[in-house]
Write a structure and sequence with these properties.
Length: about 160
């Protein structure tokens, strides 16, 4: 995995899940992954791949209406330490201001980060303050070819009090 912002082309939708699977091999409890991309870009497919790579239990689907869903740790395919997955869809949170911050705080993601990998769809500009670093995955989809373009970065920043 290259966390340096270079763009990778994923020609098939299944390649998006495979990329998530490979990304999961690098993740440990405490990692925050922020997925950015328009509707239909493949954020939930990427999360399914991450879940598969982590070996977590339960079917992964978009948590749009429940906002957050926990998947318990299972056996990781690579033999690494088992870790649970918290899958968050921040789309329905108040999009700006204090309302969004209050709703985010109510999820207690900062507590979950100690023992889980937290994947947040639509969380850019909102959840970064939870940790001193996060994995940024930007997904874009070419509507003519259905190719996905993925850019991966590990972002370091200061935790805001």
């Amino acid at each position: 995995m290259h966390f340096d912002g270079r763009s990778l082309t994923l020609p098939k939708a299944a390649d998006t899940e495979d990329f998530g699977y490979r990304l999961a091999q690098t993740l440990v409890a405490g990692d925050l992954v922020i997925l950015d991309g328009p509707l239909g870009a493949g954020k939930t497919a990427m999360t399914r791949g991450i879940a598969s790579g982590l070996g977590v239990q339960g079917r992964v689907s978009s948590p749009t209406f429940v906002i957050a869903r926990e998947h318990r740790a299972g056996v990781r395919p690579n033999g690494a330490v088992p870790v649970s997955l918290i899958h968050v869809d921040a789309y329905r949170l108040g999009m700006t201001g204090q309302s969004a911050l209050d709703e985010l705080d109510a999820l207690d993601l900062d507590t979950d980060l100690e023992a889980a990998v937290v994947v947040v769809e639509w969380g850019e500009g909102l959840v970064e303050k939870l940790t001193d670093s996060h994995v940024s995955v930007r997904i874009r989809r070419d509507l003519d070819t259905d190719d996905r373009y993925v850019e991966l970065n590990r972002v370091q920043h200061s935790v805001q009090d």
